[in-house]
Structure formats: structure tokens, C-alpha cells
């Protein structure tokens, strides 16, 4: 247990440091928006491209991993939707709880997998991101449009082929997915990363995780924790308990083991990402509720993630 805590401590200390820096005004307020964009659009895609291009693909088992991760997401989401009568929430609020139950913070997952699994853990983390990002976006868009149809509930709900075309477009143009697909293409083709690109992506990748974790901390909203009710408790349990337990049950039935099982459960037990807040705002969701869920889940993940890892090891 001590070994796990020591490995994960730098991850959560960086998150806490980012929050302290923002709250104390040590950097200009507009720094964080620019840093977040730099990580999201530049540094982290470079990291994913590099790890996918260099990953030992022969050692990876994509089939069981896909079923485990997508199955865990689906179970957590279904639990939230099934509790709608008990939660007694408006559709926008229910949509926010749903998002908090299925979305994951890839930055924390990648950092944790790197700390515990080394290069092989990084390769598995890239594969997990490639599986979960499109699955989560597809589930989110379909459910949110079904609940309150479009931004702020004013746009007509796309139906049939139009809906799925919008989902597909959002997935195939996602910069993280494009980076992983491009890296896997280079890997499968056996052409290697060109020397100049290799050096450039190595430099950019080295700054991705530290800055990403600092921005995660800066985005936490402690004031959003003042109102804790059944909606927040449901979102926390669905994400940090139901999803990893469901993923573990599926993985056990499929015989998934070793580092693949470890990294899969790390990703299943991650807190919701800040992107959930932005999507909730864009599609008419409850922004303050999901902001509170993201903050609470991130703090609790510092305690529950080591427990999940300990159960696997």
C-alpha cells in the first residue's frame, strides 16, 4: 500500500499545487485558460502520438480491454438513468450527473499508469484513452440530446442518421483520437517516427503531464461543494465505485490480468474530467452541479484510486 501511495502522491500533489497557485493568485487568472488549451490541443496529443507510435502492440489485448472499459461505462450510466425517479432531478441536472458518472480525466489516468506501469503502462493508457474517449462522447451526446435536445434546450433534437452523423463527426475529429490513430498507423507501418519529429514530440511530451495536472487542480471549484445532496452522492458512487466494480467483474469473466487489468481499472476509477463541465454548459446541463461533482470526485479519487489498485495487485 505504501508503494502505491508513494507512486500516486506526486500526481495528486501536482493537482493540489495547481489549486493553491490559482487560489492565491500567483499566476494571472487568464494563464490557466491558455495553459489548458496548450495541453488539450498540443502537448497531450503529442504525448499520445508518441506513446502509440512506440507501443509494443504485440503485448496488448484490445478485445477484452474494449469490452471491460465500455461495459463499465455503460453500467455506470444505466445506474444513473435508472435512478431518475428517486433522484427527482430536472433533465439538465440528470444529464450532468450522467456525465459525471461516465467521463474520466485522462490526464490523471495517464500519470497514474505511468507511475505504476512504466512504459508498458503508458502504452496501455494510450489504448484505454483511444477506447474510452469515443465511447464516452457517443454516450454523452446521445443521452444529453435525448434529455434536453441541444444547447440550452432551444435547438431541435437531431434524429436518426443525423444524430449518429454528429456523434461520428465529433469522434473522428477529436484531436486525442487523431493523435492515437496517427501514432498507431506509424507503429503498424513500421516506419518509425522521423528523427526531427521524434525529438520535437519527446520535448513537448515531457511537459504534458505536469502542466495538465496543474490545470486540473486550477479548475477545481471548492465553493461548488457547499451543496451536497443525493444527486452529488449518486454521481460520486456511480463513477468511483460502480464503474470500477463493473469493469472488474467484466474483466474477471474475460480473463483480463496483469498490467492490462491494472490500467483498465485505473481508467474506470478516474474522476470526471473538466470537459464534462464544458459539455454540460454547451448542451443545457447543470453547470454548478457537475462542477461540484468534478471537484468532489477528484478529491475522493486520491483516496479510492489507491484502494482499487491495491485490490488488483
UniProtKB/TrEMBL annotation:
GO CC, one annotated term: plasma membrane
Mode of membrane association: Multi-pass membrane protein
Membrane spanning stretches: 65-83, 95-117, 123-147, 167-191, 203-225, 245-270, 290-312
Keywords linked to the UniProt accession: Cell membrane, Membrane, Transmembrane, Transmembrane helix, Transport
Pfam families: Mem_trans (PF03547)
Location relative to the cell: Cell membrane
Predominant localisation class: membrane
InterPro entries linked: Mem_transp_PIN-like, Na+/solute_symporter_sf
Highest taxon in the source lineage: Bacteria
Record-level GO BP terms: transmembrane transport
Homology family: Belongs to the auxin efflux carrier (TC 2.A.69) family.
Record's protein name: AEC family transporter
Organism field: Marivibrio halodurans
